[in-house]
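Bug report (template v2)

What were you trying to do?
Predict the complex of my protein with pyridoxal-5'-phosphate.

What happened?
Run completed; filing so the output is reviewed.

Input:
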Amino acid sequence: MLVLKNYLKTRDLINKININTKIVVVTKNFSLESIKPLIDFGHLDFAENKVQEATNKWANLIILNPLLKLHMIGKVQSNKAKDAFKIFHYIHTLDNEKLAQIFSKLEENSTKKIRYFIQVNVGNEPQKSGISIDKVHQFIKYCINDLKLNIYGLMCIPPDKVDPTQYFISLLKVAKANNLIELSMGMSNDYECAINNGATFVRIGSKIFGDN
Ligand SMILES: *Cc1c(COP(=O)(O)O)cnc(C)c1O
């Protein structure tokens, strides 16, 4: 029951900073067996970073418990978008027009509406996914007005090994300028800083499950 203990401790710490913060428990690379105590406890929001792994692990559970919400936090390849659309309720990593167009088409033929976060490359890092800050406004407008997607908020992964504060602040500014309220930012190592700078969703893995 170490996982549940870690979860409760982490939840307490997060609630002390801001009681309204939503905790997304990142379960990538962890077995159902290790996750089960959290499901039994009643936690509902979980994240994976691969479509196939998410489907294998969660498809049956979601049928059994329709209140469970699954969040995609990894890169969505265009050829996996259809499968991603089936299993996920939130996509935190919408990062290009082609993908947005595919999701828009899938929604046209479905009653399902996904909540999308647009991933922003706040550090302008060539190896990272995400829309650059100077193009976010245009991309948001395109997704909302032309594609009718439910753009729920913005997401970022700040550069490694530096103080993330300025990056969280810049994501908050872009969100405000575009009337978006939800911010997916903050992981095990920087959630406190993220929440203090406006995060509404934090994505926590290793602090609960340990390092893999
Ligand atoms: C793995 C991952 C997390 C969780 O990171 P931890 O440091 O284990 O809390 C959060 N966000 C993304 C995008 C990830 O890939």
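What did the reviewer find?
Residues 2-17 form the longest helix (16 residues). Residues 2-209 form a domain with the TIM Barrel fold (CATH 3.20.20.10).
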